[in-house]
Design brief:
Structural class of chain A: mainly alpha
CATH superfamily of the largest domain in chain A: Tetracycline Repressor, domain 2
Helix content of chain A: over 70%
Radius of gyration of chain A: 20 Å
CATH topology of the largest domain in chain A: Tetracycline Repressor, domain 2
Oligomer: homodimer
Chain lengths: ~200, ~200
DNA sequence: TACGACATACCGACTGGTTAGTCTGGCGCT
DNA sequence: AGCGCCAGACTAACCAGTCGGTATGTCGTA
């Protein structure tokens, strides 16, 4: 504990990440407003001084959680969307993948959909903008399928995307890790539902 | 303001309902935790004395909002489910109706899915129980269709219900009253998506 | 390699402000 | 002459963020 930099004393992970992890868990469990800064720093084994050394505000902490999730999901979507496969498969893969990664990070998901409106107006705007990019990318995929005739044109692509992601946002409400279905099974079922709904 | 009972002075509606209406609007706009009881009583044109005369706590107010929505939706679902029609039509009607009534009360909906976890544990449990009843009724409908062969058996009925209601809960996130689609049009589209997904 | 100057990482007491809920009292109807 | 209905001041608790202070490491210079 003498030679190591302070950032990692205690356990091996650096303080900022410990703070982020503690905040994520607590925000998901109790909600943003109900979680005090004091609780977060205690869970991370530091004090307020440390938190405000690395983060500008409690709000910043929340924003970081969002940024991480958004970046991850956008990267994955882009990878699937750009793949060299027929549209149906690209849509299916992307739709199923987002289910799996959402289940893998259920805490992030529940924070995302319960606490977005407690971000400061500017940060909220920023998050919405990135969220929109994601939405549009997915919509473009659906529209491609509609143009090429493999998907029905009956429902506007926008609505289809909102429909699918509504259910994904609510995974954190009903999915139970110790339930009968594995994340992959749920993902397959939800992707099936989407693809069947799109069938002409 | 002399002859009328206090319960209705100011305008015509009784104080408890004015409080409930003000609370609903404010909870939806700012969230439960960020709304102070002071704001609520000011919006309703009364004081804390009045609020705590009719309600036991701020929490009670939130619970009332839930109770009203749940009762309404359960009644409507029961009516559609018990109708003398083929299963497909009953499912379609029920699925579309819940969309319309949700859009008609978007405030209630956004409170519902954002603030449920801030209810006291017991009230939360109670709400979950009623919510479950609703879910099961809907699931029974789907299962009936699966048994009689008009719906595919590929996806568990439970999952189908969660899929559909996930998107309904999120209507408040993306539906814009001044957007291009009327509530009824959205309802028809979402019901179509559900029915197409269930097609064998 | 010795040393001073500066930067980084963190501590923890403190402050100013907000909040849910209580309580005493009074008005007007019956 | 009581009782439902409500006003509004008050309290006890809590909370985000600040700030002065300390310990540790780094780097330039001679």
């Amino acid at each position: 504990m003498t030679a190591v930099p302070r950032t990692t004393d205690g356990d091996g992970t650096p303080v900022p990440q410990r703070l982020l992890a503690a905040a994520t868990r607590l925000f998901a469990e109790q909600g943003y407003d109900r979680t005090s800064v004091q609780e977060i720093v205690e869970a991370a084994g530091v004090t307020k001084g440390a938190l405000y050394h690395y983060f500008g505000s409690k709000d910043d902490l929340l924003h970081e959680v969002y940024a991480r999730v958004l970046r991850l999901q956008q990267e994955r979507l882009d990878a699937f969307a750009d793949a060299d496969e027929p549209v149906e498969k690209r849509v299916r893969d992307a739709a199923a993948d987002v289910v799996v990664t959402t289940i893998d990070n259920l805490d992030d998901a529940s924070i995302f959909f319960r606490s977005m409106h407690q971000l400061s107006p500017e940060k909220n705007k920023q998050v919405r903008a990135e969220r929109r990019r994601y939405h549009e990318r997915f919509r473009a995929l659906i529209e491609e399928g509609q143009r090429t005739g493999v998907f029905t044109k009956e429902t506007p692509a926008d609505l289809v995307v909102d429909y699918h992601f509504g259910s994904i946002h609510h995974l954190s409400t009903w999915y139970r890790p110790n339930g009968p279905l594995s994340p992959q099974e749920v993902a397959d079922h939800l992707a099936d539902l989407l693809l069947r709904a799109l069938r002409p």
